[in-house]
Specification:
The structure is a single chain. The protein is of the alpha+beta class and about 170 residues long. It has helices at about 1-5, 10-65, 160-165; strands at about 65-75, 80, 85-90, 100, 110, 115-120, 135-145, 150-160. A five-stranded antiparallel β-sheet has the order 1-2-3-4-5. A three-stranded antiparallel β-sheet has the order 6-7-8, covered by helices on one side. The model has no long low-confidence stretch (mean pLDDT about 90).
């Protein structure tokens, strides 16, 4: 009987306290992990939106620099004639968030997450114009976003180089 009294172990109270503390620690770790994952997902989506906008802006600017002439002006649609004579049109499909590029009947999307396209046209003196024949540069502003993240905007002003070579 003496040997039973000498054995030491944990009391029920000690075990319950240890389990409670372990549960609290695991709860805090789970919440921290969830917050970190949510922030990571949001940042990943912000980066994706930014990449879509940058790709679209760069493609539009690259093609517009080599344009022969502007075909029509609109604050939300860009139409121009390339040096080879083909017409290109960039426009936002309403409600889809897709910026489309139409050339020879095809309409592949250029970018997603686009909410707004704004265009401003300028003549050789740098003054705003609505006459496509006078347009020598275009300011392109793209705004995009996704649910749960703030809208992002990218902008550039493009000089139509090929026009000056005509």
């Amino acid at each position: 009987m003496n040997s039973l009294l000498e054995e030491r172990g944990f009391t029920l109270t000690e075990v319950l306290i240890a389990l409670t503390l372990t549960g609290l620690l695991l709860t805090v770790l789970a919440q921290t992990g969830q917050v970190a994952f949510t922030r990571w997902s949001r940042l990943e989506q912000e980066i994706e939106v930014q990449q879509h906008l940058n790709i679209a802006l760069e493609r539009m600017a690259r093609e517009l620099r080599q344009a022969k002439r502007l075909l029509g002006t609109s604050p939300t649609e860009l139409s121009f004639q390339k040096v080879d004579g083909t017409s290109v049109r960039y426009y936002l499909r309403t409600g889809s968030g897709n910026l489309l590029r139409a050339e020879s009947g095809g309409k592949p999307p250029v970018a997603g997450y686009v909410k707004r396209v704004q265009l401003a046209y300028y003549n050789a003196e740098g003054s705003p114009t609505s006459d496509p024949e006078q347009g020598t540069s275009v300011e392109i502003t793209l705004t995009g976003g996704a649910p749960g993240i703030p809208d992002q905007t990218v902008q550039t002003k493009v000089q139509i180089r090929a026009r000056s070579c005509l």
